[in-house]
TrEMBL record:
Its EC number is 2.3.2.27. It catalyses: S-ubiquitinyl-[E2 ubiquitin-conjugating enzyme]-L-cysteine + [acceptor protein]-L-lysine = [E2 ubiquitin-conjugating enzyme]-L-cysteine + N(6)-ubiquitinyl-[acceptor protein]-L-lysine. GO terms for cellular component: membrane. It is a single-pass membrane protein. It is found in: Membrane. Keywords: Membrane, Metal-binding, Transferase, Transmembrane, Transmembrane helix, Zinc, Zinc-finger. GO terms for molecular function: ubiquitin protein ligase activity; zinc ion binding. This is RING-type E3 ubiquitin transferase. It is an enzyme of class 2 (transferase). Belongs to the RING-type zinc finger family. ATL subfamily. The keyword ATP-binding does not apply.
């Protein structure tokens, strides 16, 4: 999980594809490990409770319960 920062505003993926809201400074963003798509943490957590695929490209998500994939840091 990452904190969205002001240096990320030029990113082509500046919108959560689940809720369709733009990422804003300080939003918690989770990037899926295989496809690297990013979503608001709360949005993707809710999605992954019932599905095991990326909401955008449908790539299978393996090891959803792994805690070593969830690291808090700010995207540079």
């Amino acid at each position: 999980m990452f904190a969205y920062g002001s240096s990320n505003k030029s990113s082509p993926e500046a919108e959560c594809a689940i809720c369709l809201s733009m990422f804003t400074e300080g939003d918690k963003v989770k990037v899926l490990p295989f496809c690297l798509h990013g979503f608001h943490s709360g949005c993707v957590d809710k999605w992954l409770r019932t599905r095991s695929s990326c909401p955008l490209c449908r790539a299978r998500i393996h090891g959803m319960g792994s805690t070593n994939q969830d690291r808090d840091r700010e995207i540079p």
